Amino acid sequence: MSKAVKAPSLWDALLPIALLVTLLAMSVYLYGSDSSYGANQIALLLASGLALIVGLKNGHSWLELEKGIIDGITMSLNAVLILLAVGALIGAFILSGTVPAMIYLGLKLLDPSYFYAATCLICCIVSVSIGSSWTTAGTIGVALIGVAQTMGLSPAITAGAIISGAYFGDKISPLSDTTNLAPAVAGSELFTHIRHLLWTTTPSILIALIVFVIFGLTGQHKAVSEDTLQASLDLLSSTFDISWYVLIPVVLLFVMAVKKVPAFPSIFIAALIGGLFAVLFQQSVILKFVGEFQGGEGWALLKGVWSVLASGYTSATGNAAVDELLSRGGMSSMLNTIWLIICAMVFGASLEKTGLLQVVVNGILRIARGTASLVTATVLSCIGTNIIAADQYISIVLPGRMFKAEFERRGLAPENLSRTLEDAGTITSVLIPWNTCGAFMAGTLGVPTLTYLPYAIFNLLNPLVAITYALFNVKLRRLTDEELALLRAI
């Protein structure tokens, strides 16, 4: 006869969360920006252990909890595959000359005084076009970080501008998975959802652009002489074949994204295409990278591409700044990020399987009495779920399921809920170091999450705009009597 499972108390739920917050604070204090390279992983596993102990105390069996953890890790495997593909993509796109060409064009066209705003706007356009913040950051974002470093601009502000633009597009593009997920969970229609989103998203991105303009005009960068920039341009053009055709791989990637080819195969195919272009147009670069090799030129070219896909490209131009800029990529560069994601998913799964996460969400729901407090509770639940469960999809689905009936009961149209889920769930995921999105951006852009966080203006601002709209009852559509009658009849 199986042991009866006891419902967890609020104290049960708060204990693992309190331990995690304490350990993470200690991790940041002791290790600073290096806390995601092992210390945060230990903190997540220790907090998971406490959650599992609480679950065992309440009557759950170890096999049941273990299965929950395995299921939680399984949910992150798509993100893990994408991360590995992006690592290969970055290495291949450097070797093929694609990233050096984008950096070259950026240095030619972009001025430091408007660079941050232009970066945000470029990422807005690209992300709206393809519906993916991750692909935007892994291609255009990587090149823009390189331009910023060469110009002496702040990588942290640049990363904030990239993320602001990428998540603006990811949030409103009909091609985005989260833009389709939120209305599906809330029960609204896709394009109704997008139109409703524009009311909170547009002012947020406009304010972000103004802030980035101010950053550029007020000298948030160190001056780099024309001679230094020209030397970097000359070095890039003498090392790589900088021509229009080396940009074809990134164009093909965007075409696959628009055609809705799934992220993992499209990114990995683009990485292989980048490797092919490297063989066709950058043979001298590959041979120099491989060094002495006795197996013939053809085998050396194959070895070079293979090594870059696995371990990344190492630049040896003799210029320290350019070498640091271009020594990146490879699947192995993403292994620490994958380690962080797996540990985070173990913690989220431990809380969910033991029922502790549900207790926290129910506690928030009980204090939401008015419309403004309901929207605020939804926002805080999405942010909390991003912190606890470490996945933006869970932060949309779980609060969406929890609050859907309450929104309907209060006569609020479902697009209000779907908008709020995106205003808080999609947007804040990238601000959490151990969340799949935060870990991905830190690994891809090379800027720690807590370093770029103050400059991800759009992501910080958008949840506040959502709460402000609720406080002043702005653009919160009410259900008509006919719609209410129809819902009650279902």
Automatic annotation (TrEMBL):
It is a multi-pass membrane protein. GO terms for molecular function: antiporter activity. It is found in: Cell membrane. The keyword Transport applies. The chain crosses the membrane at residues 12-31, 37-56, 77-107, 113-130, 197-217, 238-257, 263-281, 334-351, 452-472. Pfam families: Na_H_antiporter. NCBIfam families: antiport_nhaC. Belongs to the NhaC Na(+)/H(+) (TC 2.A.35) antiporter family. This is Transporter (NhaC family). The lineage of its organism: Bacteria, Pseudomonadati, Pseudomonadota, Gammaproteobacteria, Pseudomonadales.
